[in-house]
Design goal:
2 domains, 6 strands, two-stranded parallel sheet, four-stranded mixed beta sheet, alpha/beta, 13 helices
Length: 378
């Protein structure tokens, strides 16, 4: 036997409308009944409504719940609703459901504060995992392009590499030298203040020299390069992508990896040791100035103490980190540049991310390398 679908007949009487549910209002027809009720609520009716249940013969708690929810929603909209000719079975089941006020607003319960934070944490974690995956894929593409370029040297754009080396390295020397001198002054001053308590202020020279050569010099250089050069690379590539210059390269049969990424990557890898060396020397000069005035140490004695404190291994620890940190900054900056999506706001967002990600990854790599070199006795 065919199932009689649920429906509601509508009779208009002056300023009142009679709604007469018919058919089967049970769990097996609940989907159709709910859709019908939702459509009914979207219609415009007079202020007074009457639900005539005389024709309602086949129902269960699901059907009653839907009718009660519809009645409640009409009341929420400001209608006056009256129920007539309800059977004894309907009234009995309806009384059991009166403790629950059927409302769509209650069905859409808002998550708690803790729930929102958990959802937000999950979303951030997923975004971070996707970002990590994309960055690893981009790293693989850069390494593949680099190997191909080194195997075919004629594909390298030496003019572009030299131009980037000048812009990334030579033009950055003044700011790196000034910052390193200032940092050397601060290290010497703070170290001398602390060591004076133990009568060992002469070891300020050891503190400044070892700190600058092994850690501080290359770290401050990488941070400045990430902020100065990394942001520039991201903005340049981002603007090129907005202006469809990257698409133009593809149309011309040129690889954006060879034209845009490899020259910048090689330029940074090659100039970072030079910048680190300048930073080390400038930091030692700054420390020497402070020691000269605070400890009355002659330049000859300062240089002699440097020779005793600094080892060749300690010097090369800082220098060998430089190409790696330069490569990290170049890859992150180019990666974020290619993620720009057509608006000026996107350029700003990606530029900020490239600086933050570059500094974070450089600091993380420096921490891991410091532990490694300490374990191997260098």
């Amino acid at each position: 036997m065919a199932i009689s679908p649920p429906n509601i007949e509508i009779f208009s009487q002056k300023e009142m409308v009679i709604l007469k549910p018919q058919g089967i209002w049970e769990a097996k027809t609940a989907r159709e009944a709910e859709s019908y009720c939702d459509h009914l609520l979207e219609r415009s009716f007079p202020h007074t409504l009457v639900f005539d249940l005389s024709a309602l013969k086949e129902f269960d708690t699901s059907g009653i719940w839907l009718i009660q929810r519809t009645i409640h929603d009409f009341k929420e909209k400001g209608h006056t609703v009256e129920v007539k000719h309800a059977s004894e079975a309907f009234a009995t089941l309806a009384s059991r459901l009166e403790t629950y006020k059927p409302s769509k607003e209650k069905l859409q319960k808002q998550p708690s504060y803790l729930g929102k934070r958990v959802v937000e944490l999950g979303r951030i974690t997923v975004d971070l995992l996707i970002l990590t995956r994309d960055l690893i894929v981009f790293l693989g593409q850069v390494m593949t392009g680099l190997v191909f370029a080194l195997r075919h040297p004629h594909r390298l754009r030496f003019t572009s590499i030299v131009a980037h080396m000048e812009r990334f390295g030579v033009n950055a020397l003044p700011i790196i030298a000034v910052m390193s001198v200032a940092l050397g002054l601060v290290l010497a001053y703070q170290g001398e203040e602390q060591l004076r308590r133990f009568g060992a202020e002469i070891y300020t020279i050891n503190l400044v020299s070892i700190s600058m050569l092994r850690e501080v010099g290359i770290l401050i250089t990488s941070i400045l390069v990430a902020g100065r050069t990394g942001s520039s690379i991201t903005a340049q590539i981002g603007i090129m992508k907005i202006n469809q210059e990257v698409d133009a390269l593809n149309t011309l049969g040129l690889s954006p990896m060879e034209v845009l990424v490899i020259p910048r990557f090689l330029a940074l890898v090659l100039v970072m040791p030079l910048l680190a060396f300048v930073s080390d020397i400038a930091g030692l000069v700054g420390g020497g100035i402070m020691v000269f005035f605070s400890l009355d140490v002659t330049p000859q004695l300062y240089i002699h103490r440097l020779g005793e404190a600094v080892t060749l291994g300690g010097f090369w620890v800082g220098i060998l980190k430089a190409p790696l940190f330069g490569g990290i900054i170049a890859i992150v900056s180019c990666f974020e540049g290619f993620r720009v999506e057509g608006t000026a706001e996107s350029v700003g967002v990606c530029t900020t991310r490239s600086v933050v990600e570059g500094i974070f990854l450089v600091t993380l790599a420096d921490a891991l390398l410091s532990v490694f070199f300490s374990k191997v006795g260098i």
